């Protein structure tokens, strides 16, 4: 039993916590207003489409817990909803970045409140030169900083799409390393998986992904790229989700859509040994969603997968499919050498959380549920009505268009051990190198027992 599990078990024993009913609950919702832009003043100038280079949005594309109330969010490739150049899919020279957030979840009477605040904006760059299109080199570049950009034409046409020297980056998945000093980012253009220094934003490692994920005929226009390749990822539907196992040793990426060479509804999961870079591939079959947006670890072999449609707020329709499934890679067959219909090799899956149903039961109509529910991250455990809950933070990508998709929203669901046991799952908290204080809810429980001098701490 690790320190975190022991600490929480002590609280359970001392407080006589009640067994939970097996049904995930919505604990809180929060909104981050994007009207003031992000904290990168150096990018405040106008982009090619007239929008501000520090426009705040899209930050639910990827969400990662960093301990305590701190989370990391990635805002994909930037604002491209305004038409300016169809040959570039209207992408701009928005510099790739990650946002550091404080998601303060606080007990408020019989309920909970969530207050999101932005605490830092960090631009991502390579210390060595990158391939840019003519006229697309960032003005902030210098001899030691070559910034990644969302423009779809920033690539070397002589290399496959997984070439790490391409400047284009569409960061979708993000996780924090075990030592807390770096993050891992997956993207859709390559796909790529990069390790980024958390303090500076410098890329410190690039992982070589399997060649069967890459396309060889590159284009700045997605439709042209799709028509020009019979093998590899579909344009703008690369490695959408990324998980890290609780021990910090393995990354697990998932593609948003089937590869060109695979049957419809079959996606690829790729595991990456962080130390060696060794990879394995597994198959995931869609149930009713049009794609997958995220994957997050329950333990070293079980994961939650976010499967969704594209309907809801921002699409002008009503949300229908936003479902979170549990999968297990134990005993799964490696499909790296296979192609075609992978259905018979797909990992087993079980529904854990129907987001539309639970939000609907809490008065949130389908037309007000964001179309792009994309970010998943476990946070610190809390006690709710005498029940120990694992907090699952769910975020949306609003595509930088607040007028139609609203601000970035965060939903916090509580999953009990009883919820997980129904699908044969268990949960282990991600372990970081530094201790982080228990959330306020646990401290208050202990205070009520006169035990503040024996304050429980956990490895967040």
Automatic annotation (TrEMBL):
InterPro entries attached to this UniProt entry: Ice-binding_C (IPR013424), Phytase-like_dom (IPR027372), WD40/YVTN_repeat-like_dom_sf (IPR015943)
Residue intervals of the Ice-binding protein C-terminal domain: 435-459
Signal peptide: 1-22
UniProt key word Signal: yes
Alphabetical UniProt keywords: Signal
A Pfam family assignment: Phytase-like
Domain named Phytase-like: residues: 56-400
UniProt cross-references to NCBIfam families, sorted A to Z: PEP_CTERM
The protein, known as: Esterase-like activity of phytase family protein
Source organism per UniProt: Massilia pinisoli
Organism placement in taxonomy: Bacteria, Pseudomonadati, Pseudomonadota, Betaproteobacteria, Burkholderiales
């Amino acid at each position: 039993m690790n320190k975190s599990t022991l600490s929480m078990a002590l609280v359970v024993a001392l407080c006589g916590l009640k067994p939970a009913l097996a049904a995930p609950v919505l604990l809180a919702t929060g909104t981050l207003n994007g009207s003031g832009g992000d904290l990168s003043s150096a990018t405040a100038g106008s982009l090619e489409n007239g929008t501000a280079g520090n426009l705040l949005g899209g930050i639910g594309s990827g969400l990662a817990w960093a301990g305590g109330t701190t989370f990391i969010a990635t805002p994909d490739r930037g604002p491209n909803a305004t038409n300016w150049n169809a040959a570039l899919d209207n992408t701009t020279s928005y510099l790739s970045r990650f946002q550091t957030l404080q998601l303060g979840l606080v007990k408020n009477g019989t309920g909970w409140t969530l207050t999101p605040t932005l605490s830092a904006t960090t631009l991502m760059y390579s210390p060595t030169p990158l391939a840019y299109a003519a006229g697309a080199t960032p003005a902030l570049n210098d001899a030691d900083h070559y910034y990644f950009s969302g423009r779809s034409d920033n690539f070397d046409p002589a290399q496959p799409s997984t070439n790490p020297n391409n400047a284009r980056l569409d960061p979708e998945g993000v996780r924090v390393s075990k030592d807390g000093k770096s993050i891992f980012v997956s993207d859709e253009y390559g796909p790529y998986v990069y390790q980024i220094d958390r303090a500076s934003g410098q890329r410190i490692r690039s992982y070589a992904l399997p060649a069967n994920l890459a396309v060889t005929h590159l284009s700045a226009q997605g439709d042209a790229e799709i028509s020009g390749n019979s093998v590899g990822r579909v344009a703008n539907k690369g490695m959408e989700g990324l998980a890290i196992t609780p021990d910090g040793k393995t990354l697990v990426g998932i593609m948003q859509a089937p590869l060109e060479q695979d049957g419809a509804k079959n996606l690829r999961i790729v595991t990456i040994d962080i130390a060696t870079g060794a990879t394995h591939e597994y198959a995931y079959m869609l149930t009713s969603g049009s794609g997958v947006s995220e994957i997050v670890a329950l333990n070293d072999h079980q994961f939650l997968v976010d499967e969704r449609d594209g309907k809801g707020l921002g699409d002008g329709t009503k949300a229908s499919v936003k479902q979170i499934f549990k999968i297990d890679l134990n005993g799964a067959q490696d499909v790296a050498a296979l192609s075609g219909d992978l259905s018979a090799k797909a990992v087993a899956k079980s529904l854990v959380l129907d987001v539309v149903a639970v939000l609907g039961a809490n008065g949130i109509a389908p037309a007000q549920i964001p179309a792009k529910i994309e970010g998943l991250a476990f946070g610190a455990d809390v006690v709710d009505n005498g029940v120990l809950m694992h907090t699952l933070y769910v975020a949306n990508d609003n595509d930088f268009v607040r007028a139609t998709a609203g601000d970035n929203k965060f939903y916090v669901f509580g999953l009990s051990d009883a919820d997980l046991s129904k699908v044969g799952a268990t949960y282990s908290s991600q372990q970081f190198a530094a201790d982080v204080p228990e959330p306020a809810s646990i401290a208050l429980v202990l205070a009520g027992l006169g035990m503040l001098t024996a304050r429980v701490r956990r490895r967040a």
